[in-house]
Amino acid sequence: MLELAFKGGKKYWGLIIGLLVLMGIAFGFWLWQLSFGLGITGMSRDVSWGFYIAQFTFLVGVAAGGVMVVLPYYLHDYKAFGRITILGEFLAIAAVIMCLMFIIADLGQPMRAINVIFYPTPGSILFWDMIVLNGYLLLNIIVGWNVLEAERNNIKYPGWVKALAIFSIVWAPLIHTVTAYLYCGLPGRGFWLTAILAPRFLASAFAAGPALLILLSLIIRRVTKFDPGREQIQSLAKIVTYAIIINVFFFLCEVFVVFYSRIPSHMDHIKYLFVGLHGHSALVPWMWTSILFMVTSIILLVIPATRKNEAVLAFACVILFIGTWIDKGMGMISGGFVPNPLHHVVEYVPTIPELIITLGIWATGFFILTILFKIAVTVKEEVSGV
Amino acid sequence: MENSRRSFLKLAGISAIGLGTKPVLDAFASSEAHGEKHGPEIFPNQEALTAKRWAMVIDTRKFESEADLDPIIEACNKIHNVPKFKEKRHEIDWIWVDEFKHVFTDLEHEFVDDRLKHLPFLVLCNHCENPACVRACPTKATFQREDGIVLMDFHRCIGCRFCMAACPYGSRSFNFRDPRPFIKEENKAFPTRMKGVVEKCNFCAERLAVGKMPACVEASNGAIVVGDLHDPDSEVRELLKNNYTIRRKTHLGAGPAIYYIV
Ligand code: SF4
Ligand code: SF4
After folding, report:
1. What value of ipTM does the predicted structure carry?
2. Would B8 be classed as within a structural domain?
3. In terms of CATH architecture, what is A2-384?
4. How far apart are CA A365 and CA B216, in angstroms?
5. Among B146, B205, B214, B229, which residue's CB has the most CB atoms within a 10 Å radius?
6. In terms of pTM, does the model score above 0.80?
7. Do B105 and A265 touch (CB under 8 A)?
């Protein structure tokens, strides 16, 4: 099926080349980072994880969120989603690959990454994260590819593929749970040290992932002859609505516990993010934007009239995606490091090379996504004979 | 890479002299005596300082100002090839100073007495009993010895910095760039590090192995003492018995092995 990726119009090739250029530039900066070290980023011994790990965290969510189209189809026999499960699976593939790239970009000695396998350490959550992420990637490649191949040949996919699909549904929440466990089991980092972290991660994942799928579906309808379907988009929108409400609710639970108990080591991080601490407030406008975007999207999604209007729905999904991205991709990681264990406020701001490398990895993800979606959509167009 | 390999070999060579020579002879001697053949055996250096559980007591009453602490920090930095960067972001610290309110975040209060308020405190890795850094490390590059010392294998570390997020004391540093050009005077007997790996205080394990006290202890004029926590007659136990001591963030249960007399 891969040959389908090589037949496309001008716009398709324009996009592909544009993404390749971005990837090339970022690759150059990554080579620089390799030779100089991570010192070209804004990280320090106080904020020792930055933008890369934050993007990784957010994208694990997007990957897990893809399951929200797969689950209703396989477990609840919700036929309508049969048309678009492949989009969820392919989105998951692209997202997990981005996650792995962000991890590699963040390693000080990427050539030694394989040490995680040479010296397996089951006590380390990172070891398990490696297993669940690679496992999820493999599952989605196998299931996605076989289902699409079967569709192309006009046959039903074999039973073992369905078994694997169900397995991948169970696996999806695991990837984000384990990713949350990276953070929430660490003593002395009050911001992360909360049992709500994994549920919160999942809720925001099941909002952001499907929201992106809605947007992608709308784009596909516009630029190809394949229509993912109005009903499908509306069903996804309802999933997004519940998930984003639960996400905000979980956040408020955390805020209550932290501010009613008034334990400083837990309070100070949230204070830093939302009102600033000891005169440092780089993230304050961002965090409030995030809240504003999430709340606005809830309003637009809850009201049936606005949700059913696809233009408004698209707008709601865009701000929801940005809102959850700021929350996780900016606040969640540096927020945990500021103030530091000795209670100094050392702020973190990503540097230009760091941002370019980040952008390059996103571009790689979208490159993979474009190719996979192109293949999927072409197959869909073929079988429906348009 | 080249460089670090060489320094590592150098260190290995030195430890071989320290640890090896005599035991090898012993091994020969014993095999001759018993008239049976057996493979090479490794004996610890007889001079090595050992303990069941190492601990450190810092008598802060013997310090007045940073000037008293600078030589101690300098001694450590020099012996361990700790680089000095201009850029704050790239900073590497093994042992450094901070104020009471930052070192003892949970003991600090508004009316803490004047002496403590202005006294600089030494901070370093606590060689925790339950080290979160060891738990987090995905490659065992950070590990705990039986005697409690928490060490790093610079050659195995992948630079994921999970250990830095895990350490509740901010004891770890990362080589954000090649440190070698920033080492004032290289000590050939200790390896320099390469970019992309984590490092921290090693309790002078390399000195204990050849019968020397840690560098900070030597430079402290008796204000810092290390010894065996499990030996009731050790000097640290003596100090702990007769003085009120505090440790950092004990509520976390990490079990820090650095005690402060205040
Ligand atoms: S102080 Fe930090 S680095 Fe040292 S042993 Fe404890 S957790 Fe590990
Ligand atoms: S940075 Fe090195 S020592 Fe620290 S957790 Fe990663 S591999 Fe282990």
Report:
1. 0.92
2. yes
3. Up-down Bundle (1.20)
4. 50
5. B214
6. yes
7. yes
